[in-house]
Design brief:
Layout (H helix, E strand, L loop, with lengths): L2 H5 L19 H28 L6 H8 L12 H14 L1 H21 L2 H12 L5 E4 L9 H4 L3 E5 L2 E11 L7 E8 L5 E7 L5 E5 L12 E11 L10 H36 L1 E2 L2 E2 L4 H29 L5 H25 L11 H13 L4 H13 L6
Parallel strand pairs: 1-4, 2-4
Antiparallel strand pairs: 2-3, 3-7, 4-5, 6-7, 8-9
Helix pairs in contact: 2-4, 4-5, 4-8, 5-6, 5-8, 8-9, 8-10, 8-11, 9-10, 10-11, 10-12
């Protein structure tokens, strides 16, 4: 390749941060973000496609992630929500499956304990969770309940003296095939309220079966969970998890994490499409020299920048304690819609090579479909935002 061509890879905006959002971070946060990037480039990127193709999780990565020490960046480590969001985007940029693993263990599972557990429970559980000696899962979605699970939780909890008996089923539960603990949200038959329980996955009556044949996030080990007369001591009921309103305190924050994943997926699509357009030649010229290719690259970049801008402001509101549920809903709906457009254009730029994982774009394209749907579908989040601006609920 000519020297001129090589220089194209070192343009000022090669990292996609077109408006310099990282300048909002402190010097220490920028250094930390670069440390995370270096880790992902060394430990995650080289194995990501192979793990995805085999639909296997790299268990050997967990001790390395523990050493990196990225758990609970805001509550435990004192970083800004902007930093936490950009870091989660970087995880997704490297591999959406590993980002989802972290989103489940650190966001949904750990976040539930940080928000809903008593101080005594936190002292007992969080040290091993932060150290990743205990891996967690989050059991809310059910085989017949997704968007309507708030009012239609079928898994039941019956209190008998100093323990509870859980019965029911959960579906799409990430990490559940190998997790040590799982948070189960179940409806207390006594008051019809959803309550939260920490369940040891070795408890009799608990089983988790891997969901096969996925076309998205194949490295993530999603499972069907069955609960048959699972006995849980009252001390393992989360003290602050007594209604779905409590559960939603966790989901409001983790929904932001998924929106940041949509940012990271677009960053990944831009990276791959841009490099391919510079390296690939057609008609004796780089693809990047054609107007229609530049048009698509700029549209991907525009979608990404718009998504980052929305997320940065929402992260600032979160740090101020001003973020609202409907703002999280709009962010998730907007960023994932832009993501779908971006990854489709990226796949188009790669042509036929965009449908094989060898060139990575096919994996990015496929993983985007899961991000589009989980943590509240695009449609439900749209209606949550619509309710906020009209005062009328269109959700049945």
């Amino acid at each position: 390749m000519s020297k001129a061509a090589v220089d194209l890879f070192n343009l000022p905006y090669a990292d996609g941060d077109f408006y310099g959002f990282e300048q909002l971070l402190t010097d220490a946060e920028r250094e930390r973000l670069q440390e995370v990037r270096d880790f992902l480039a060394k430990e995650v990127k080289p194995i990501a496609v192979d793990c995805w193709n085999r639909a296997e999780f790299p268990m050997e990565l967990i001790p390395k992630l523990a050493e990196l020490d990225v758990m609970s960046p805001v509550r435990r480590q004192g970083h800004s929500s902007v930093f936490a969001g950009l870091m989660h985007a970087e995880f997704t940029r490297a591999d959406a499956s590993i980002a989802t693993f972290m989103g489940v263990h650190d966001g949904l599972f750990t976040g539930s304990i940080e928000v809903l557990a008593s101080e005594e429970q936190k002292e007992a559980w969080l040290p091993d969770i932060y150290a990743m000696k205990k891996i967690g899962a989050f059991g809310l979605t059910e085989p017949l309940g997704g968007s309507d699970v708030a009012g239609g939780t079928r898994t039941t909890a019956v209190r008998e003296g100093d323990h509870w008996i859980l019965n029911g089923a959960k579906r799409w539960i990430g990490n559940a095939t190998f997790s040590d603990w799982v948070l189960i949200y179940a409806r207390d038959v006594a008051d019809n309220q959803v309550k939260a329980f920490l369940v040891d996955t070795t408890t009799p009556g608990y089983s988790a079966t891997k969901i096969e044949n996925k076309i998205s996030l194949r490295t993530v080990q999603n499972a069907d969970i069955a609960l048959e007369n699972v006995v849980v001591g009252h001390e393992f009921k989360l003290a602050g998890g007594n209604s779905f309103r409590d559960t939603n305190k966790v989901l409001k924050v983790t929904r932001l994490g998924v929106a940041w994943q949509a940012v990271g997926a677009q960053m990944a699509a831009f990276d791959v499409a841009r490099r391919y357009a510079l390296e690939r030649e057609q008609f004796g010229r780089p693809l990047a020299s054609f107007q229609l290719v530049q048009d698509q690259l700029v549209k991907i970049l525009g979608n990404t920048v718009a998504s980052v801008g929305m997320m940065v402001r929402l992260a600032q509101l979160e740090d101020l304690g001003l973020a609202k549920d409907e703002q999280s809903a709009l962010a998730k709906a907007f960023t994932t819609a832009r993501m779908r457009e971006s990854v489709a254009m990226g796949r188009s730029i790669l042509g036929g090579n965009g449908i094989v994982t060898d060139y990575e774009m096919a994996k990015i394209f496929s993983d985007a479909e899961a991000i589009y749907s989980y943590e509240g579908t695009h449609e439900i989040n749209t209606l949550v935002a619509g309710r906020a601006i009209t005062g009328i609920s269109a959700i049945v």
